[in-house]
Amino acid sequence: MGHALTAEQAAARTLFHVVDEHDHEAGGSTLLGFWIYLMSDCLIFAVLFACYGVLGGNYAAGPGPKDLFDLSLVAVNTSMLLLSSITYGFAMLASYRKQVAATQFWLAVTGLFGAAFLGIELYEFAHMIHVGATPQRSAFLSAFFTLVGTHGLHVTFGIVWLITLMVQIGKQGLNKANARRLACLSLFWHFLDVIWIGVFTFVYLMGMLR
Prior knowledge:
The chain is mainly alpha-helical and 210 residues long. The protein has helices spanning 7-13, 28-55, 65-68, 71-96, 100-130, 139-172, 176-208. The radius of gyration is 22 Å and the shape is elongated.
């Protein structure tokens, strides 16, 4: 004869994840850990900027920034990312007022601006590769694709994170856990804006002056 399962045991067997989250009252450690992560990301981009500074003038008799860069297109791309930072700020303000629908709306607008930024960047990459300016062509292009591409990957991950957070807010509302996640993503998104301003200035503007 098998042993009969109690109601608690039967419920435990059908539970595949922990419903109750950990305590979010003392959230300073979460934000501290995220700040440490951002500092490590700063080091990665510092190395990439340094590599571009050393290799950015080595064209190997190939095309240079003046031959490849379209500043008007890059300016539009930059405005997309900067506008996304503003709309994310609106999402944070709405979250402070516990307005779920408004928070979701501004997060969606932020994601659309981020997607537009990525679309323009991919168009730029495709055009450069089409004319033969591939990463293998010169040290300049290798450093360029690595630096700008790494930033683009960060934006991609940020959009995935943003969509995931929108789903969580839709299911759970603006609880303490989601409020903290919004704050962490805010730090990450604004960090990407700061990095892009450096890319725009150091890579594109200074590249046209070489």
